[in-house]
Specification:
Strand order of the largest sheet: 1-2-3-5-4
Distance between the termini: 51 Å
Number of strands: 11
Order of helices and strands: HEEEHHEEEHHEHHHEEEEHHHHH
Number of helices: 13
CATH class of the largest domain: Alpha Beta
Number of domains: 2
CATH superfamily of the largest domain: Aminoglycoside phosphotransferase (APH), C-terminal lobe
Shape: globular
Largest sheet: 5 strands, antiparallel
């Protein structure tokens, strides 16, 4: 994309968003230090009316994916319009605390899609040591799952659907990748084959859970926070909504609580979420029932990472034995 094309796209997107003509006097762009799957630029924009904007331009088309992501991310998860739709239809209208939405770039004839968001300050949650911030992130989820955004998301047609077929796809991919890998032992192949044979119980349980509007990738790397532990006040703002979905609320909780937490710490985060729910939601699902759902969803995530790609392995600092974690969760739920 040329400088001229970028300027034209930003002017058109801002004009459509504000429903008035927009002219850029000055535009400076640079690659963003943080990017996960797609190319992300920081934009400094001065408009002819004196308005100054500090924006993020995130490209969403498959052609703009980072090479490492394009090689491994499953195609059936990709929809360049999903994040745009979620911002337009649910997040902005509901006043959800996330990056402000300033418009979108949609050029299906060339395969170019992008989103313009306001730059926000904050630290990625995984860099925050204060446990109160993690509990605040759990409470934030309760507002998402049971607030106005959940209702408005009924108008989103591009959300990922956590239906039985979705769950079956992951266990089959995990079984195939483990069994076909020459690096895997016979014990590993036997273990994943046994898990796959009894996984129907997991599919039934996850499919029976209430379907909520979920972030879908609520890991600590996708959560920005700012605050002061001394005042016990934390501002939570999740980013990267490209995996937004209709699915069990516990999917987001399982993502948040992933990692080397103790059972006590994990339960504290789940309890923070449950205590922040509306009273009628607590009446429908007990805390113990929610904890059980989170364990099922932890199993889902472990199976999902096993089935992510036959050629993918995480960076050494993030490497985990997902098969061992899957088997541990399976034992915990009595599979």
């Amino acid at each position: 994309m040329t400088e001229v094309e970028l300027r034209q796209d930003v002017e058109a997107a801002l004009g459509e968003h504000w429903r008035r003509p927009v002219r850029i006097e000055r535009l400076v762009h640079r690659a963003c230090e943080y990017s996960a799957s797609f190319a992300v630029d920081e934009l400094d924009v001065d408009l002819s009316d004196g308005t100054r904007l500090e924006l993020i331009h995130k490209e969403l088309g498959r052609g703009s994916m980072l090479e490492t992501a394009r090689a491994v991310k499953p195609n059936f998860l990709l929809d360049p319009r999903r994040e745009i739709e979620v911002y337009r239809t649910a997040l902005s209208a509901a006043g959800i605390e996330t990056a402000p939405f300033y418009g979108a770039i949609e050029r299906p004839d060339t395969g170019r899609f992008g989103i313009l968001l306001g730059r926000i300050a904050g630290t990625h949650l995984w860099q925050v040591g204060e446990f109160a911030a993690w509990e605040a992130a759990a409470r934030w989820l309760a507002g998402l799952h049971h607030g106005e955004a959940h209702r408005l998301a009924n108008g989103c047609e591009r959300l990922i659907r956590y239906d039985p077929e979705f769950h079956r796809v992951w266990i089959e991919r995990a079984r195939r990748f483990v069994c076909e890998s020459p690096a895997r032992s016979a014990a590993d192949r036997d273990a994943i084959t046994g898990l796959a044979a009894s996984y129907g119980q997991v599919v039934d349980c996850l499919s029976a859970l209430p379907q909520m509007f979920i972030h879908g990738d609520y890991h600590a790397s996708n959560i920005l926070c700012a605050g002061d532990d001394a005042r016990r006040s934390w501002r939570i703002r999740p980013i990267d909504w490209e995996m937004a979905a209709r699915g069990p609320a516990a999917i987001d909780l399982a993502a948040l609580t992933a990692g080397n937490w103790s059972d006590e710490e994990r339960n504290r985060m789940v309890s923070a979420y449950w205590n922040a729910l509306p009273a009628d939601a607590r009446d429908r699902e007990s805390l113990e029932s929610l904890k059980a759902s989170v364990e099922y969803c932890r199993l889902h995530w472990a199976v999902r990472w096993l089935g992510w790609s036959a050629h993918w392995s995480p960076p050494r600092t993030q490497a985990r034995d997902w098969l061992a974690e899957a088997l541990t969760s399976a034992r915990r739920i009595g599979l």
